[in-house]
Amino acid sequence: MTTQVTRSTFDQVMVPNYNPQAMVPVRGHGTRVWDQQGNEYIDFSGGIAVNALGHTHPELVKVLKDQAEQLWHLSNVFTNEPALNLAQQLTDATFADKVYFCNSGAEANEAAFKLVRKYGHDHFGPQKHQIIAFDQAFHGRTLFTVSVGGQAKYCQGFEPIPAGIEHVPFNDLDALKAVISDNTCAVVMEPIQGEGGIIPATPEFAKGVRELCDQHQALLVFDEIQTGVGRTGELYAYMGMGVVPDVLTTAKALGCGFPVGAMLTTDKVAASFSFGTHGSTYGGNPLACAVAGKALEIIKDPKLLAGVVAKQQVFIAGLKKINSKHAIFKEIRGQGLLIGAELIEPWHGKAALFLAAAREEGLMILVAGPNVLRFAPSLIIEDDEIESGLQRLEKAIANRIAKGIDS
Ligand code: PLP
After folding, report:
1. 3-class SS at 382?
2. E strands of 224-322, at which residues?
3. Which of 283, 281, 237 has the alpha carbon at shortest distance from 49?
4. What SS3 state is found at 271?
């Protein structure tokens, strides 16, 4: 029996590790979403950089329905065509020779961090196990991934955490130089720190990290879970940086809303995951891989990727216009359709207030930490949808400012 559920049901029956907005979305199409009361929203949040083709894209709906009539699940005791096709596409399109499938970003990173440790052990011995990552980085919520992530608050209360992980400031090559050694098995970075506040790696920094890894025979892991699959206007952000990683993790937009993650790497590194070393019951699931295969086919089109860069201009111009009236942003930054607007200092710590104000105006946005509003809409959002959403944003900002910082 199904009973009528509402937002308050969440507080009764869900573990309180989230605090969702005061409405329950029930339907989405393109860049619009509707809630239980029929209120309509423009979606600039894209399911946290997931819905790269908007909601219920007809080609994805079709491929999912077709696959649902064919084959749902097999486990990894058997392979399947959608997984093989997706792996083929990913290796054709990137530096990688091999792919490992899983179901989320954290799982892709978990696999990557285990793989780089194993590779260090296999080729150099157990002393080569140090992983270096960056302050404010975010890599997921399993114990290993919060430990590699650079936000101490996500580890608090879960100690003891895995050992052998060091953090240094992002975009600071000297700090990395001071810590890296021949015992480092890998350096892990996001090309643009997403949850950390939309902070792009400078090109010199990314190149310097690659060189230091090479000097110390350490692997370079790019976490492209947020930046990948067209988000920056490149299929993967590394492609525009002049730096090629040894391991890359991808999830979020890979399935455009159907859960799937992948770790990509070279033949040589992949060999350290021999038969039985790692696995996942659902990894390479036919439904997930069929959707991801179609999504990748659509998104890797150069015309679509060029559109992302063009839409960024429209978006940034609109944000600047809002700022010229309300002087609320200290900096607007990002790449492609991963855009951050840092609030001026008096509003630091208050980003979530704008999220609620936007929702009241029929707009879904995100925050990236306490100081930054984040926008990660569909990569195929129309320009007039951007304009309409920004009009709602401006109203939300005006309302929020009128209420005052302390209310
Ligand atoms: N890595 C990065 C860069 C992310 O942005 C995220 C999620 O926000 C993750 C990893 C974790 O992905 P998931 O939530 O799918 O486990």
Report:
1. coil
2. 247-250, 261-265
3. 237
4. coil
**What does pTM read for this prediction?**
0.98
Task: Give the model's confidence band at 336: pLDDT under 50 very low, under 70 low, under 90 confident, else very high.
Answer: very high
Q: What separation in Å is there between the alpha carbon of 351 and the centre of ligand 1?
A: 20
What is the number of H-type helices and E-type strands within the chain?
Answer: 13, 17
Pocket perturbation via mutation, ligand 1, pick of 17, 252, 280, 374 by most ligand atoms within 8 A of CB: 252
Active-site residues: which are they? 138, 223, 252
Q: Which residues of 271-285 are buried (b: 16+ CB within 10 A; e: fewer)?
A: ebbeeeebebebbbb
* Beta-sheet pairing, 98-102 with 366-367: unpaired
pLDDT band at 406 (very low <50, low <70, confident <90, very high): confident
Q: What backbone torsions phi and psi does residue 204 show, to the nearest 5 degrees?
A: -65, -40
From residue 357, alpha-carbon distances to 47, 177, 362, 395 in Å are 18, 44, 9, 9
Distance between Cα 223 and ligand 1 center (Å): 9
Tokens standing for residue 357: 């104000």
Angle formed by the axes of helices 58-68 and 286-299, nearest 10°: 150
Strand-pairing partners, residue 98, are 265
> Whose CA is closest to 348, among 369, 327, 366, 333?
369
Sequence-ordered list of residues with C-beta below 8 angstroms from that of 252, at least 6 positions apart, any chain: 48, 49, 50, 105, 225, 226, 228, 229
